[in-house]
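Following up on my earlier thread - several people asked me to post the actual chain instead of describing it. Fair enough. Here it is, all 104 residues.
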Amino acid sequence: MTNITRKLASLAGILFMTMALGCASTTKQEGTGEYVDDTVITTKVKAAIFNEPTLKSAEINVETFKGVVQLSGFVRSAANESMAVQVARNVAGVKSVKNDMRLK
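Reply from S.P.:
Thanks for posting it. Predicted structure:
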């Protein structure tokens, strides 16, 4: 009976370690908490861009990874491009902004 108990304890330990390491973040993947944080940042940036009357929010895509916001899509002018970057930078939680937007 003790042999079975040891095997079950070892299996439980291995499962626990696998689950704990599976939620840890790496350089290319995010942990669960970081993913939720980035989702909140993305939503806030999208809302801020939507609330800026000079920008067409449907043409600007927003993605966030570990607090770094990437803006892509098309804008009408360099002024709109600068405005979108500035709006994104002013959102709480944004570490930096990558600008991949293009002029129409």
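The beta strands are 60-65, 68-75, 96-103. That should answer part of your original question.
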